[in-house]
Amino acid sequence: MTAGADASADTVSIPLDKKLEMYRMMLDARLFEEKAHKLFFEGLVKGTSHLALGQEAVAAGFAAAMRSDDLTFCTYRGHTHTLLRGADMGALMAELLGRGNGICGGKGGSMHLTDVSVGAMGSYAIVGAHLPIAAGAAWAAQARGTGQVSVVFFGDGATNIGAFHEALNLAAVWSLPVVFVCENNLYMEYTPIGAVTAVPNPAADRAGAYGLEGIILDGNDVEAVYSTATAALEHARAGGGPQLIEAKTYRHGGHSRADPGTYRPDEEVQEWLDRDPIPAFRARLEAAGVAAETLDTIEAESDAAVEAATEVARSGPFPDPANLETQVWADGGSSWRN
Amino acid sequence: MAELTYRQAVARGIAQEMDRDPTVYFIGEDVAAAGGVFKTTEGLQDRFGPERVRDTPISEEAITGAVMGAAMNGLRPIAEIMFSDFFATCWDIVANQIAKARYMTDGQITLPLVIRAANGGGARFGAQHSQAMENWAMAIPGLKVVAPSNAHDVVGLLAASVRDDDPVVFLEQKSLYASRQEVPEGEIVGELGKAAVVREGADITVVALAAMVPRALEAAETLAGEGIDVEVVDLRSLVPLDVTTVLNSVVKTSRMVTVEENPRLCGWGAEVTSIVTEEAFYDLDAPTLRITTPHIPLPSADTLEDLAMPSAETIASELRRVGNG
Q1: Fold observed for domain B2-183
Q2: Residue of chain A minimizing CA distance to B142
Q3: Domain coordinates of chain B in residue numbers?
Q4: Which residues of chain A lie closer than 8 angstroms to B101, CB-CB?
Q5: Alpha-carbon distance A225 to A205, whole Å?
Q6: What digits encode the pLDDT tens for the residues B254-265?
């Protein structure tokens, strides 16, 4: 690896309750998205959806390490990040189903899940756009002295767009409390990232250009993610400036629901399925002495939560047509003339 | 009462709001130490310090993204985009992110921010530093669009824009920077969406914006000597649009001409004309008329640029065609 230090799983001692919390988070995310996928084929989730199945450890490790007033900015592949910051699962599922009780009243959809009340500041669907926005939120945190850290998740594809570079430079120059997290799932939509990128580690290898250390991480190891996240958040919160982390991971499915992902070699897919972060973590927990029944109970509770959320969504009302032209402006309306 | 240039009015408006509200911050390229390439922001960094008035790299996506993120987290930031043409380099942030965030989140996000820019032609800068792009911004739901024609309105409308809870694109017409006006001392706060009848007249309503306002007024003076009494309405903001003031004027004069600096297609004059024909058709005694820059990129040579932009002379000659009969 050309850039930076390898993050290690055992730099921080993680208490058992935190580990179990992360196990639950990953299961919530996994089961939520598997359900969303099923509802898509029932014709209940419309449009498109971009699942993060297989990438749950990044979202869980960070969400478990963040302070409640820290800010998350994520992409259209953002169900898990929004959920794991604490957004209501039923309201998220209802948003995917285009219901009036959705988290954005049906105006956002799968690619724009947002719950400001829990610091989930939006899912951004134009690649790279949210990096400077996250830097701006960090600038306000710095100016107001709030101690918040802004954490922005993006894919490997975003490292080749201008906004990535503009945001990293500004954040470095202004020493902003922002953690940039590249979820490198090896494919820029349908194209291997290596085929269109000048360096092997698309984020970490660029870090030096901004005076940053390129941190590379096994994004399928939730404990490694948690440890690295904790250190990065502390660094940024203490005024040390931005951090850039590249988490290597893999999506189990295609880019979006329209993509079966057949461009990926079978052996590669199998290799990553074998490294599925959830069973891997479960095995580690069991080896450390956690009873299988404890873990089974968590899984059953996650499953029940997803079923309940699905019912909330299925039984939710369609959006009130009266809301079509609301909330363009801060006065709640959309009037542009008198 | 002191005489103020349009240029000085920018710094005065920003200072007035930064003095009043500690959450107002200001960033842009060359705006702080250098005082702005048009010298519109001189003295602000000395007065408010390097944290609140801050230079940025040449990174328009970072600048506009930064003010968006900051507005989401407790600031009321002002950004400068040096030339409005450069909005093209950050139009994703402005049109896809800033304009849509509130609607997409059903009101969870409020963005009290202002993006100022030097807009328009007349300075011989050529096609990439001279565009009048108000119609780009006007076409995007979620952006307010303000374009003052004089120093007093620069102060008042800048204050109103900063205090507004929605994103405002604030367009200063760069050929007006040297224009002067008596502006009273003390706080000045304008109102967005309020046009001004800057010259009363009985025969023709001329609706204009920014640099086209003084040109329309000059044309009106010419025609006054010929027995044509022209009323001039300064729109001041395109979103919100003060339709009421326009309609009231048209009802009085029965004739309407719009004067736009932007290229012909989809200019704001087309929208105003559409509204007037829908809502005041039977008050009209003559066809409406749009005077615009031709649908061309703006040339650099002074003689060509003068030919392209509506001048007081061309406005006067077009108004003669509309007549007062």
Answers
A1: Rossmann fold (3.40.50)
A2: A328
A3: 2-183, 196-320
A4: 122
A5: 19
A6: 999 999 999 999
